[in-house]
Each structure stands twice: as structure tokens, then as C-alpha cells.
Design goal:
Layout (H helix, E strand, L loop, with lengths): L15 H8 L6 H10 L6 E4 L6 H8 L3 E6 L2 H13 L5 E4 L13 E7 L8 H11 E12 L24 E3 L12 E3 L2 H10 L2 E7 L5 H4 L12 E8 L1
Parallel strand pairs: 1-2, 1-4, 2-3, 4-5
Antiparallel strand pairs: 5-9, 6-7, 8-9
Length: about 240
């Protein structure tokens, strides 16, 4: 099964190798670990991961007993995900699709939807959340993580989620000038209020929130005198 993708630019196609190298295969980084914790016991559940990339989260959820469908718009990243599936078959169904379009996965329903770091890569937040609400069964949940929208980061590999010269209140797509992902694919910055109000508007009500601290390796790079602040924001929402 292949979903139609029309007029969508797969920004990650150009950096698929770089992304795989930098993101790795593990799921122990703070934001991903928070997502898995918020998802809880997934044994026997039918789950959907959006913006699945090369599939590292989908594989972990499948290993924990879930049945996975995983979507992305990048054929280059999906090709990598399918190589992992061939090497270690977990029954994951990988699809190329634009998760913001109204007809995507028509008629399919899931117990949970996961999006790890992907919200800032998806330009149409309302289109995404409308579909997430449609995908979920009445008791379903949506778990996501992202770079914390409220706080600036530090150094070339720990960027802010917003342009440092414009600040938190300036929403929109921007391209960073550092050496990380965001100087290659950009990011859609939104205030935390925009995320929360959009979730409520689509009937997705907060159940739990996490702000995991940076890893010890990242914490060691905090500039002298800089206050410790959250790098990541993760949440679990219930369909209402």
C-alpha cells in the first residue's frame, strides 16, 4: 500500500545519511525516552507513528508488542527503515504519505499515535492534528516530543527552537545557522500556547507532560553562568 504524496517537499531526502548518523539507532536520548514512558505499556495495541524517519521509534514500539504503521514523506528515510525491517522483521508497515492531507489512511483507526520530534518539521499543524484526532479510537492517545519551544539552547549542536535574533514570539519557519539538523531542513517554531490551543481545538486533551533534562553529555556543554533550562517538551493527550 502506497499513499499519494502530491506537492510535498521531502526536506530530509537531502540529509538522510547525516540524519541517520546523528540520530542513531538507540532510543535512550531524553526526549525519545520520555515519549516511550508516556506511551506506557503498548503490548497488543495498534499504533501509528507519524514522521517516523528511519524507524527507530517504530522498531522499539514493535519490540514492545505493538502493531505498527509508520508514515513519513521522505522516501530516502523510508528506504532506510525498510532495510532495518528486512534485517529484523517486526511486521512494521512503512508508508510514504503526507499526514496532513484529508484523505490519508481513510477508515483506519489506532489505539495511539506517536510523533517524536516531528511537529516542528510539519508545516500544517492543524492538518496534522485533525487527522490525529480522526485516526484515534474513542479511548486513544497521542504522544509527542519536540525541542522545548520556550527556551533557547546553546552552542552549534543545541539550537534554540526559535531564531535567537528574533525571539520566542516570532512564529514561523526558519533556517538555523549552526551545524545541526536545523541549518539543513529548517524548523517551524510555534509558541507553547499555539501547540496547546491547537490540541484543544482538535479535541486532544492533555493527560501528562514531561520536560526531561538534557543528557549528562549535553549538560557538560552548558556555558558558564547559564541557568539550566529544559531542552525538551513531551506530552500525552487523550481524545475527547
Amino acid at each position: 500500500m502506497v499513499e499519494s504524496v502530491t506537492g510535498v517537499v521531502a526536506r530530509y531526502d537531502q540529509i538522510a545519511d547525516f540524519y541517520e548518523q546523528r540520530s542513531g539507532k538507540t532510543v535512550s536520548d531524553p526526549a525519545t525516552a520520555a515519549v516511550l514512558d508516556l506511551a506506557g505499556d503498548v503490548g497488543g495495541l495498534r499504533l501509528l507513528e507519524v514522521a517516523c524517519g528511519q524507524g527507530r521509534v517504530a522498531r522499539e514500539l514493535a519490540r514492545r508488542g505493538a502493531t505498527l504503521t509508520a508514515l513519513d514523506i521522505s522516501p530516502a528515510l523510508l528506504a532506510k527503515a525498510r532495510i532495518y525491517e528486512t534485517a529484523e522483521p517486526l511486521g512494521i508497515c512503512y508508508l510514504r504519505a503526507d499526514v496532513t492531507t484529508s484523505g490519508v489512511l481513510t477508515g483506519q483507526v489506532f489505539d495511539g499515535v506517536v510523533c517524536n520530534y516531528g511537529l516542528s518539521d510539519i508545516d500544517d499543524l492543524d492538518g496534522l492534528l485533525a487527522n490525529v484526532a480522526r485516526f484515534l479510537n474513542p479511548d486513544g492517545w497521542f504522544v509527542f516530543s519536540l525541542l522545548h519551544p520556550c527556551f533557547p539552547g546553546w552552542d552549534s549542536d543545541a539550537p534554540s527552537s526559535w531564531p535567537p535574533d528574533q525571539g520566542y514570539y516570532q512564529e514561523g519557519w526558519w533556517l538555523a545557522s549552526n551545524t545541526g539538523y536545523r541549518c539543513r531542513v529548517g524548523s517551524s517554531h510555534r509558541m507553547i500556547s499555539t501547540y496547546l490551543n491547537s490540541l484543544v481545538r482538535h479535541g486532544l486533551v492533555l493527560d501528562r507532560v514531561a520536560e526531561p533534562p538534557p543528557s549528562p553529555e549535553m549538560e557538560q556543554r552548558r556555558p558558564p553562568g547559564a541557568a539550566p533550562v529544559p531542552f525538551y517538551f513531551a506530552a500525552r493527550c487523550l481524545r475527547r
